[in-house]
Structure formats: structure tokens, C-alpha cells
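protien #1 (seq + structre)
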Amino acid sequence: MNKINESKLNMYDAVIAFCNANPVIVSSVPAFQAAFASFHATVNDIHLTIQAEASVITGITAEKSQHKAALCGHAVKLASCLYAFAATSGNQELKAQSSFTPHAIGRIKDGLLVPTCANIRDAAAANLTALADYGITPATIAHLQDAMDAFAAKLAAPRNALSRRSACRASLKLLFGKADGIMKDQMDKIAALFRSTNKDFYDAYKNNRVIIDAASSPTQISGIIISASDGERLPGATVEIIGQSISATTDANGNYLLRHVAIGIRSIRISKPDYKDSIIENISVKLGRTSAVNAALSPER
């Protein structure tokens, strides 16, 4: 979502909070109350869609890494047995084909990993009888194939995620247009009635209606981590958002800053060697706002 819409959504939220704080006045004009209800529902849909957009690719990278690690494990196991067999039988060509360490196979580019594993699979299948003494069975090869298929399926996930994100962005464009229409054509017009009946409400409504530049107030979480035993600030503590690949380390003064946080209700985990982990839940993260979250870690006994 661009900065213009971030700023606009901050204004939407401010208007909603103001109207919710004045239910008696809002309900005194049924037409305004109905327009506000429609506006509120639309803004809720905007928040849900933004969350959906932000979470589309959450976990995809982690899942792909897990499948890659599993595939590399199966491949190295098979390759090691092939190498031992080749060394024993003096088959230099097979020895060269099966010379893979866990580090080496883990560094193979994603697009080349499955073909590389396929070569290991085929070499093992061609020497299956001899490999029986090394504990290799048809099931071993089948496990490698299953891991290859699972990893190959995950390679397509980011492209599919981009399609889903595009759909979310198209929905957001429509929802912002709808919210703008309700506010400009209904709420703003009807609110003029309050100018004579409740000028304070009208003036406050207009003030909340002002769009503030979100670029000067990014969406983030910041705070200070201290020791629960003596209140001293803790440097080197890791603060991570649960469910997002976002983390930060506290500086020499115990300060941390988590940037580009997805909006919504978030939880953070705080950890440091020799201290007990701490999880803080129900952190409300809003667009263009900085949520202040301080914490104290207890030393391990």
C-alpha cells in the first residue's frame, strides 16, 4: 500500500475513533449514523484486506527452507552411500558424481537442486542391488523422490503469492474508493447539520478529517529492554515478531526498533542468553503509527 493510502487510512481510523467516542451525538441524526456504519464496515474490510496482503507470503520462505533442508538431508544420505560404494569398487566416475557434503548440496541454487537430486536418485537406482549392503532400499529412493516433489511444489509458491497479492491490491483500490465516496458524499454533507446543533462535535469531526502524512510516521514497534533483577538496560537482546521474518537486536542502551511491521494484533518474543524468553501478546499495530513496547527479562536461575 502506498503512502497516500496509509495517510488516508490513518484519517479514516481517527474519524471512526472520534465517532465511536460520541455515540449519542452520532445517533441523534439517523442518516449520519447509517452512513457512519457503512463507512466503518468498509474501513474494517480495508484493514482485513491489508492484513491478507501482508500475510500472503508470510511463512512461504520458511516452508521452502524446511523442504529444502529435508531434501538435502535425503540426498546427502544417498550420495554418501553411493560415494562409499564407488570408493570400494573403484568406480571413479560414480565417486565424482556422488561427492556431496551437506554444505555443498545446501549451496546449490534452488532451480538446480531437484535436477541434481534426480542424478543422485538415478545413480542409486542403477546400483540398487549393490547398495543393499549400505542400507539403501527402494524405500530410501522413494523418500528422496517425495522430498524432491515437495520442494518442487514450494518453488511455485512465491509466484502464486504474487497473484494473490495483486488481487488484494485490486480490492483495496475499490474499497478506498468506496470509503472516500461514503465520506465525501454522505458523512461530510450530513455532518454540516451539526454546525448549528453541536458546533464542538462538528469542529472536532473536521479536525479528524485532516489527512496527516504517514511518511513521517512509519508503521513500527519500538521500545526498551531491561533486566528484571536490577533495572539495567540490556544490550544484545533479540526482539522478533512472531509470524513474521522481522527481528532486531537491542543497542548498547537496550533500545530496539522493528520496522515494516504488518498491521493488526501482533506478538513479539524477546530472548537473550542467560535470560528467560519473554512473549508479549496483543500488541495493536496501526498504519503510520509507532507502537511502544517495553519489557523486562528475568535472569535464568
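ok now protien #2
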Amino acid sequence: MTENPILLYLHIPKTGGTTLSACIYNHWHAAGEYYVGEEGYLHSGIYYFPIGFFKDPGLAIPQSVLHGLGRPDLRAVLGHFRFGLHEYVSRPCTYITVLRDPVERVWSLYHHVCGRDSDVNPVEFATNPPYIEVDNDQTRRISGLEPRLGHCTRATLERAMDNLRRHFSVVGITERFDESLILLKRVFGWQGGLGYYPKNQTRGKRGTTSLTQEAVDAIRARNALDIELYDFANELLDEAIASQGASFRDELAGFTAWKDAWHRELAEKWEAQRAANRIAAGTT
């Protein structure tokens, strides 16, 4: 059994969490002990929380999941759960999470559920959400509460802020992913490389610059609490980085330069392979 606390990665949908999950697995799984259990959800001590992207407010945790959370070889839980999962784990736990700019997150969610060519208007999507996840979902999940659509309050936000401050070892930011990753490495003493390539990106997604001001305003109005929580999370990340000293910035600069060069090299190799495939298929 590991002496480390159980790592609970509270993966908020559409925050780049699939990429981070791969990094966590690489550094947190039981090295040299590859095995699969719990109906395929447990991999070498890493449990992939099986309750999905969209949540039912009244959903109880199934007995099969409780069994997985109680395993003595459990090292980490990754998935779309909400704060409070630690109450079902008998050993010491610590949370981590990543927040994203609320307009960017909701726009990514829109593309995920509606598709690029959807007839659903983004303004309507935000004003009359078809899913509760459109409505201050970062505040909801981190607070551990589940108000009805449109009923998140300042008390919900304050609960979420208090949880981040008291129960989360690292609070990352999607737009500051490299900083968040280096902080995770330092806080948890990860050894070895941190190379990653973004995973599970929505294909054909247009940037938020294609949104009308009306759509941006509608998303911001629907997610006013998430905007405050996102600003607070950035402050927490700034504080955590400052506590690491000047060497943090040096390590970050070196990592980012290496990663960018590696990504360019991969892109060149893939383009060369695509060109070779086109030649072989006679499509050039």
C-alpha cells in the first residue's frame, strides 16, 4: 500500500482533463504492477470513476463504485465526480482540480454536445440551458452542492472557495497548464519527464472569437459565479507558485521550451507521414 494520500482528481468537464489524467497515470500508478480490475475501471491502482460526463442530482454512488473506492491498492481516483468523494474513502485523501475560463469552457461544451454545424443558437444554449452543466458547473462540482438550474448562490460560491483553500493540494488553470503541471510535479515529488500532447480536443471547434458579443454576455451572465471562482483559482495558483521560489520560473521556462520543440518535431513527422500516405494513395 502506498504511503501517499489517495489522489482525487476532480475533473471538471471541458477543462483539458483527459491530458492531465494521462500525466497523473504516468506518475502515480503502481509501477511494474500492471493489472486491470473493477470491471476495467481500475488500472494499476488508478481508478477511473465510471459515472459519466452528465450528472443526475439524485444519483447515489453504486455499490460497485464503493467497492472500488475501498480497495487497499487504490492510489488515485480520476473522473467527473463532485467534491465529497473523500467521504467514501477510508484512507487519507487530497484533491486536485483544474479550472477553465468560463466562456471558453461553455463554448467547448457547446461544441461537444451540439456539434459545429448545430442549429442551436449559442445565446439560447446559455440562456435556456439544456443541461445543468452549462450553469456555473465549476462552482457546483467544487462546492459539493447541487442546486437546481439557476439556483447557485453566493453561499454556493463561498463553499467552493473554502473547499479549494482547505482541501485541494493543487488548483490548476487550463490556460496555465504548464505552470499547473510543474506545480503538481513539485508538490507530489513526481520523477521523470512531463511530456504531453493535448488529448480529446473537440474537432472542428471554432475559437471564442467567433462568438457574438450577445453570446459572450449570455454565457458570462449564466456563469457569473464561475467567473469569480476562476479568478480566485488564479490567485491560489499565483500564491502556490510564489511559495516555490525563483527556481520555479527557471524550471517552467526550460520545460516549455523543450515541450514546444517536441511538439513541432511531432507535427513535422506527422505531416511527412500524411504526405507519404497521399503519395501512396495517388491523391496528390
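The mean pLDDT is 90.
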